[in-house]
Structures are given as C-alpha cells and as structure tokens.
Write a structure and sequence with these properties.
508 residues, alpha/beta, Rossmann fold, 17 helices, globular, disordered C terminus, binds adenosine-5'-triphosphate, binds magnesium ion
C-alpha cells in the first residue's frame, strides 16, 4: 500500500432533482487521520462520500490527491487511487464465500481465474494484522452483520485502499463489536491509512476521531479538532440548537396489560429456536424496553408478536383478545403498530413514492377512501401533513422512497404508524441510523405516545436509548428474558445480564 498524504475535496456541489445535496463543500483528510463526518439525516454525508468514491459525478468542484487534481469517474478509478469505501448498506453476494466475494471484480489480467487459495491466504494475513476475524471459506449469507462488515473492510484492504470511507459502520454493531472495530481502526491508522468515519453517535466520534466536520443542509457547518470540542458543541453545530437527551417520565398509572405474551416460542429463518418460552406484558402508559445483544431473538420476538412469524407454541394477547398467529392485517385492525428493524424490506416499499408509502396499511380508512376508491385529494393532504409534522426531508411527495436518506425513511414509517393512534406499538431499533435531532424527535414522540396511553414495546440494542425511555427493562439473552429490572440498574450489571452471566430479579 502507498500512503496517501492528503485527499482534498474543494467546492463540491451536487444537485439531485429538487435537492441541493452538497453545496460548495470543502473537506480534507490527512495520512494517519480519522476524520469524522457528522450531520443530520439528509445533510449530504453519503452523497459527498459517493462522489469521492466515484459513484456520483459532482456538478462542480474538484478532488486533489497529494495536491494533484484527480478525476475519479468510477469506483475502479477510486480504488486505483487508493480510496476504498464500506457502504451503509453492504454489497456482498450472499451465496458466495468470503474469498469469492473479495475476488469478485478483481482485475485478473495475469490469469483467467483469480486463484482463490491465494486470495484466502492473503485474507488470513490481513485478518491477523488488523484483528478482523473471519473465515475466508465461510458463505456470506451465514455471517452475522458484524462479520459481513469485516468482509467489506477486508475487501477494501485487499485492494490496497490507503483511505477507507466507512459510512455508519457502527449502526449495525453491538457495543462489544464497536470496541473491536475501533481497535481495528487504530491499527489501520498506525500503518498509515486514513479513515473517514460517519456516525450519528457523538460519543463514538469523540472516542475515535482526530477531527470532525459537521454538515448541515448540504453545507459545511464547521471542521474542528476533536480534542477542542464537546458532544454538546457538536450537537449544536449539527442541529443549530441545544439537544435534549434525558427525558422525565411520568409514573405509569395504569396496571392494565395491553400486550400479554405467554410462554411464546418461535424459530428463526434457519429453523432453529429463537424465542424460547418467553413471557412478558406491557401496560397502557408504559414503555417496556427489551435490551440485548443483537441476534438473541429480539427480531424474531417482534415479528412473532405482530404476526409476521409463526409462533410454535404459547400465546399473544392484545387487550385480552387471543391474537396468536393472526395475520398482520388483523393485528393492525386490533390497534397494533409496528416499526420494523428491517425498514428497507419490511417497513416500506422501496420503489413506491413517499405518498404511497405514507398510506400503506391505512389506505382503507374512511378518511382516505370513498368506498373502494381512494380519495387522492385527501391522501395528498394526509401525506403532506405527515411529511411536515415529522420533518421528513423529501423533495416531493412523488419521490421514490429509495432515494430518501436512511433516517428520513425511518421518520416516514414512524409518522405512518403513529398517526393511526395505536393501542400497542412495537418499535424495533427505532433510531438505528437516525441522526440525533431526529432521534430526539422520535424519543419525544414515543414519550408522548406513552402519555396518550399507548403500550410500547421498545426493542433496542442501544442501551442509552433503553435507559432513557423505558419504565422497565427486560433483558433478552438466547431467546429468553433473563430478567426484568428497573431503569436505574447500573450499566455494568445490565451488561452482564446481556452477556448471559447473571439473572436479574424477575417480576414474576
Ligand atoms: N440518488 C439520489 N437521488 C435523489 N436524491 C438523492 C439521492 N441520493 C441522495 N439524495 C438526497 O440528497 C440528500 C442527501 O442525502 P444523503 O444520503 O447524502 O444524506 P446523509 O447525510 O447520508 O443522511 P443519513 O444520515 O440519513 O444517511 C437527501 O435529501 C437525499 O434525499
Ligand atoms: Mg447516509
């Protein structure tokens, strides 16, 4: 690898229909530096990085490497210049092995077929050197998200990337994995790599970066040395005002269980037990937080409750009505709303417009339809209101949802689900990948919903979020609730429970 002394973006401007995504942005990275890029959802971070990686062509501006102007017209050009990127949404081929994925697209001018043994050998060396544990012969579909991310990083390193762009790498990781990733990032800068690190988590940015550039509405709000700034200052730069992170929760007055899950069991996609004989209940005016390390059955639990996955035994009752294995439509009719973890595949229809997605599930409402016919005037008014109230950044109501930024898609789902005034809300990772301004808003709405009487099951891997919002915390480990505790439980104790080491006091 040849170290890159400096990469400089000068006056980058990029326009999409109806949006000025990047407005005269200047930004630079030096050898051995970790430069964090911060900004609210839709601020233009991914766009700027896609320009640097040759995926988008800027309307204006230039890129200089070691002081020399360079044209980057494709990712191949970028890689040739030593620039690699790990995307927000991974781009691996699931049925292929790790080594095959790495070999894929490599220029094999020397031989007709890249020798997979050679690739595997080199991968083992890189894994060892940078602490990126992964088996070259494993099939990608069998890997957990954290492992897939390591493959993406290895793929870039294999191609000799000296500058690595990491777009929200920690959004899919649990705390332990974040720590491991940070060790790797340090090793990379020690060997002269430069890194651009995008994250919405300010404490991560404070912990890992050397400098921070904040984008706001497509413009640079400022670049600062990390040691000269604070989380509070960064938040203010991003949002333009002070941000609230701790909420006061009124006491839960009602003892009525809206959701009662009893001895529920379900299998995961591979047919293995994922939810095991699990019981919990959520009252009106209450947020029950489910904390746990990713992959301990949280996702399967949510899907089973809302009827997207079959319960193999046990029961789900909503307001004392037996709802086990009822179709999602019946759950919706019973007043259940769902914010899924997999928002791109389960929460929205990617190719549908913002307006169409805003009325999914609600399209038969008397307010939106006249008999069997949809009332387009009313639908438009409804969608306009949702977009405005929830501050969904979209150029028009007819924009396909897939071109919205990740956080804005989440806000749209939230808007649609909450406007139905549900009795029970199942929220899975509601702020994953969402910026702090929007997170604050989503948290505020969850507290409001709770105040309105909604029972909320909040499933989150973000312990800070659970601690800030939940009235009670259920810790999930290997498909079971290992304990239900008060939100004032010390974090290290929760951590031990999440690792399956201890049992907390159970409510039963
Ligand atoms: N391919 C595209 N077509 C049209 N508009 C786009 C496209 N890509 C991005 N945009 C728009 O450009 C703006 C910036 O989006 P971008 O993805 O860069 O934001 P971001 O800062 O990465 O946000 P997030 O934190 O949510 O990932 C948004 O308004 C987005 O809707
Ligand atoms: Mg982005």
């Amino acid at each position: 690898m040849t170290t890159i002394q400096s990469v400089e973006l000068r006056g980058i401007t990029k326009r999409f229909p109806g949006v000025l995504a990047n407005d005269n942005i200047s930004f630079d990275v030096r050898a051995g530096e970790i430069h964090a890029l911060l900004g609210e959802n839709g601020a233009g971070k991914s766009t700027l990085m896609k320009i640097l990686y040759g995926l988008y062509k800027p309307d204006a501006g230039e890129i200089l490497i070691n002081g020399q102007p360079i044209r980057i017209k494709s990712p191949t050009d970028a890689l040739r210049q030593g620039i690699g990127m790990v995307h927000q949404h991974f781009q691996l081929v699931p049925p292929f092995t790790v080594a095959e994925n790495v070999a894929l697209g490599l220029a094999s001018s020397r031989e007709p077929l890249t020798d997979l043994d050679v690739v595997s050998q080199r991968l083992r060396e890189l894994s060892e050197q940078y602490g990126l544990r992964v088996d070259p012969n494993a099939l990608v579909w069998q890997l957990a998200v954290g492992q897939q991310q390591r493959v993406e990083i290895l793929k870039a390193l294999y191609r000799d990337a000296a500058l690595l762009i990491l777009d929200e790498p920690t959004a899919v990781l649990v705390p332990q994995e974040v720590d491991e990733l940070f060790v790797t990032l340090r090793k990379l800068t020690d060997t002269g790599h430069s890194l651009i690190f995008i994250s919405h988590k300010l404490h991560e940015v404070m912990a890992i970066s050397d400098r921070v550039t904040v984008l706001r509405d497509g413009r640079v709000a400022g670049t600062v040395a990390t040691q000269d700034t604070t989380q509070k200052d960064l938040a203010r730069m991003m949002v333009g005002r002070d941000v609230v992170t701790v909420w006061d929760k009124p006491e839960c007055p009602s003892e009525m269980a809206v959701l009662r899950v009893e001895k529920l069991s379900a299998l995961n996609d591979k047919g293995l037990p994922a939810v095991k004989n699990l019981s919990l209940s959520v009252c009106a005016n209450e947020i029950l937080g489910v904390a746990g390390v990713s992959g301990n059955g949280q996702r399967e639990l949510a899907e089973t409750i809302v009827g997207l996955r079959r319960a193999t035994s046990g029961s789900v009752k909503v307001l004392n009505n037996e709802m086990t294995n009822h179709a999602p439509a019946a759950m919706i009719a019973a007043g259940v709303a769902f914010i899924p973890e997999e928002r791109m595949t389960m929460g929205v229809i990617r190719d549908f417009t913002v307006q169409e997605n805003a009325i999914l599930e609600t399209h038969a409402d008397p307010g939106l339809a006249d008999g069997v016919l949809l009332n387009f005037g009313k639908i438009q008014k409804h969608a306009t209101r949702l977009v405005r109230e929830y501050d969904v950044k979209t150029p028009t109501l007819d924009t396909p949802v897939k071109s919205l930024s990740g956080g804005n898609i989440q806000k749209l789902i939230m808007a649609r689900e909450l406007t139905r005034q549900p009795k029970l809300l199942i929220a899975a990772q509601p702020t994953r990948g969402v910026d702090i301004g929007a997170s604050e808003y989503i948290h505020k709405r969850l507290i409001q919903e709770r105040g309105r009487g909604t029972a909320i099951l909040l499933i989150s891997e973000d312990l800070d979020e659970v601690l800030a919002l939940a009235d009670r915390i259920a810790v999930m480990y290997e498909g079971e609730i290992v304990g239900i505790v008060e939100p004032n439980t010390p974090v290290d104790e929760l951590g031990l429970m999440m690792a399956g080491a201890t049992k907390g006091k159970s409510e039963k």
